[in-house]
Amino acid sequence: MMGATKSKYSFKHDKIRQNRSSNCALPYNPFGNKDNYQWSFAERWFNMKEDEVVLIGNETWDKIGGSGTYELFIKTVNQMGQKYKNRIYREFLEIEPPTNQSQLK
After folding, report:
1. CA quadruple 29, 51, 64, 71: dihedral positive or negative?
2. Residue 34 in contact with residue 49, Cβ under 8 Å?
3. Average pLDDT of span 18-29
4. For residues 105 and 77, what is the distance between their CA atoms, to the nearest angstrom?
5. Do 40 and 48 contact (CB within 8 A), yes or no?
6. Taking the chain, what is the end-to-end CA distance rounded to the nearest angstrom?
7. CA-CA-CA-CA dihedral for 22, 27, 32, 33, to nearest 10
8. Are 24 and 46 in contact (CB under 8 A)?
9. Which of 21, 63, 59, 64 lies closest to 37 in space, CA to CA?
10. Can you give the three-state secondary structure of the chain, one letter per residue?
11. Does 24 or 3 have the greater pLDDT score?
12. Considering only CA atoms, which of 72, 71, 70 is closest in space to residue 62?
């Protein structure tokens, strides 16, 4: 009995090992797409525009959840943002929310 459990356990971990990878993953890129990434601090360790291990924005989310995950994430955040906007400003940012679009930066 013990041997069967051990081999089942080993098989599961072998399968997991085959599918794993390491990445430098950034969930958001304020500069737009990967080609426009400009934060020099991170570039001390990686070529942020060309290293295959670097995932930025949509690459990060699509790697985690599959193709289309980033678009779904952004859509969901925008929907939730409408509902929670004032609370986010007051409780997280500790400022009053802007009263019109021109105040948003």
Report:
1. positive
2. yes
3. 79
4. 17
5. no
6. 64
7. 20
8. yes
9. 59
10. CHHHHHHHHHHHHHHHHHCCCCCEEECCCCCCCHHHCCCCCHHHCCCCCCCCCEEECHHHHHHHHCCCHHHHHHHHHHHHHHHHHHHHHHHHHCCCCCCCHHHCC
11. 24
12. 70
How far, in Å, are 6, 13, 47, 49, 59 from residue 16 at the CA level? Answer: 16, 5, 28, 29, 21
Q: Which residue has the tokens 């678009």?
A: 71
Q: Which amino acid is at 66?
A: G
Q: Which two tokens stand for residue 60?
A: 């990060």
Q: What is the residue extent of each domain of the chain?
A: 1-60, 68-105
Residue type, 44: R
Instruction: Tell me the pLDDT tens digit for each residue of 34-63.
Output: 888 888 888 888 888 888 889 988 899 899
